[in-house]
TrEMBL record:
Entry annotated with the keyword Coiled coil: yes
Assigned protein family: Belongs to the Frigida family.
Keyword flag Lipid biosynthesis: no
One of the GO BP terms on file: flower development
PANTHER family registered for this protein in UniProt: FRIGIDA-LIKE PROTEIN 3, FRIGIDA-LIKE PROTEIN 3-RELATED
Pfam families registered for this protein in UniProt: Frigida
Name listed for the protein in its UniProt record: FRIGIDA-like protein
Chain coiled-coil ranges: 11-81
Keywords of this entry: Coiled coil, Developmental protein, Differentiation, Flowering
Length: 531
């Protein structure tokens, strides 16, 4: 600021300096013996021009300085707010973590005390505060371990019977037959698993047939349903385990169960190498099942984190992806995973994971979404309307329409409307939808209509088209231009506080060199996830 004032003072004294120079020049001219080529007017114009130029540049610098100070002040205020929010989150996380630690220590202490009393022949005591002490339970005695253990399986009592009989094939078939009511099934399966003699063993047995012997079994719709059911059963077992105390979990997931789960994982692992990462589009059931297996049965320590993190792009579209990464201790690997997604044209998945792991500062969502749309339009540009077939033009429009809907959905899910207004995008969607509907209607009208015989059978009469009945041939405007209905919100769960962290650096990932055009590979975001 002092330098600015000194510069302003020097500029202000320019006029007096010019006057002094004028006097000196006049004195010099009066005493000159020869005619000088210079004239005072020329000198005055020269110095006046320099003065104006300096003043203009000085004012510009002042404006830039003020603007910089304003931006700096706002940035500091924002940084202070974020620091305060981070501190508040840390304090809240520490409080919750301490509560969980205290509860775990209390449960372990009570269990050890109860075990000591039982071993010494002393009568067990439930305590004066009315809280039940934790007992060592066998897998068949875990029914009372839920917080509200009086809940029963009411809608599908057959589930309880199948679990009691340890009928894995029957359980698979029952879930497949009732797939329309999948939400209700998922709520009751964890409770039904309690009735099994060994819930963990029942779930492991249900995984048989995940990889059939047939070469073309992957394309079979029944196989896809079976794989989804296997994943759901492992998720339900995880729900059951999360509602049990530590002693019951150790009894349920014994070393023998872990060994069997590890054998299955080792059998599946080589088959993941043959998967087409490009074709999976972040929705691979095989990779999801593998990650869910090692997470549910707690055998992640036997596998390399780098190898596990390379599987994340193959399941990035799955709604369980974020929770799986945290549970497996891969949170530190997420920056590398997001970079892989961005480089391979899957910016939507990258934005979802960036929000899930609070990495939006490192991976700004709006530029990623704009880049996604830019690539979509760039992929559509080579096809010129005048030289392309109607089918090719339709495919180009479909690509852009799919990209627009995906971006709008992502913006709305993450509340980015202020940073990226959706009105222009929605107008473009309506325009493409209208063009699509007009083209479809024109195609239908162009089809030859079969001639109908006259009522008296005396040949065919002229086809009359301009009649009142034809006015109802086309549907109403609201029917023709169907509004875009968004599917179920596709948002990853927020970061949890009780997950492990990896201390290793972010992994480096590489997609196969044969990766084709991202928008030409049928990558869709609107397909609803079954379970």
């Amino acid at each position: 600021m002092e330098d600015t004032k000194s510069v302003a003072t020097l500029i202000g004294s320019t006029a007096s300096k010019i006057q002094q120079l004028q006097k000196a020049f006049a004195e010099l001219e009066s005493q000159r013996a020869l005619t000088l080529n210079l004239r005072w007017k020329e000198l005055e114009e020269h110095f006046s021009g320099l003065e104006k130029s300096l003043k203009r540049r000085f004012h510009e610098l002042e404006d830039q300085e003020k603007e910089f100070e304003t931006k700096t002040r706002k940035a500091r205020e924002m940084l202070q707010k974020r620091e305060a929010a981070v501190v508040a989150k840390e304090q809240s996380s520490l409080v919750r973590l301490q509560e969980k630690r205290d509860a775990a220590v209390f449960a372990i202490t009570n269990a050890l005390e109860k075990h000591r009393k039982l071993s010494s022949g002393q009568p067990a005591d439930n305590g004066d505060n009315g809280e039940l002490l934790v007992e060592e339970k066998q897998p068949e005695d875990i029914k009372s371990s839920f917080e509200n253990g009086n809940l029963e399986v009411k809608s599908y009592p057959q589930l309880v019977k199948l679990c009691e009989e340890m009928d894995s094939e029957g359980l698979q078939k029952f879930i497949s037959d009732n797939r329309k009511n999948l939400a209700a099934l998922k709520e009751e399966i964890p409770w039904a698993l309690k009735a099994a003699g060994s819930p963990a063993r029942l779930v492991l047995e249900s995984l048989e047939g995940f990889y059939p012997s047939e070469v073309d079994g992957k394309k079979d719709a029944n196989l896809l349903g079976l794989r989804r059911t296997c994943i759901m059963l492992m998720e339900c077992l995880s729900v059951l385990l999360s509602n049990l105390d530590m002693v019951s979990v150790l009894a349920l997931i014994s070393e023998d169960i872990k060994e069997q789960a590890n054998l299955i994982a080792e059998e599946w692992k080589p088959k993941l190498d043959a998967l087409d990462m490009d074709a999976s589009n972040g929705n691979s059931l095989e990779a999801h099942a593998f990650l869910q297996l090692i997470d549910t049965f707690g055998i992640a320590s036997g596998f390399n984190e780098e190898e596990l993190s390379r599987l994340i792009p193959m399941v990035s579209r799955r709604r369980q992806a974020a929770d799986l990464c945290r549970s497996l201790g891969l949170s530190e690997k997420m920056p590398g995973v997001i970079e892989v997604l961005v480089k391979n044209g899957r910016q939507i998945d990258a934005v979802n994971l960036a929000f899930a792991f609070e990495l939006t500062e490192q991976f700004s969502p709006v530029p990623l979404l704009k880049s996604y749309l830019k690539e979509a339009r760039k992929a559509s540009s080579p096809v010129k309307p005048g030289n392309a077939s109607p089918t090719a033009q339709t495919e180009v429009s479909e690509r852009e329409l799919t990209a627009l809907k995906a971006v709008i959905k992502c913006i709305e899910e993450h509340n980015l409307e202020e940073q990226y207004p959706v009105d222009p995008l929605q107008k473009r969607v309506l325009l493409l939808e209208k063009a699509k509907a007009d083209k479809k209607r024109a195609t239908e009208v162009a089809k030859p209509q079969p001639k109908r015989p006259r009522a008296n059978g005396a040949g065919y009469g002229p086809r009359v088209t301009n009649i009142a009945a034809d006015k109802t041939f086309y549907p109403r405007v609201t029917d023709r231009y169907m509004q875009y209905v968004y599917d179920r919100p596709y948002v990853y769960a927020g970061p949890a506080d009780n997950h492990s962290h990896s201390l290793l650096a972010s992994a480096t990932y590489n997609f196969s060199p044969s990766h084709g055009n991202y928008f030409g590979n049928g990558y869709q975001y609107q397909t609803p996830y079954l379970h």
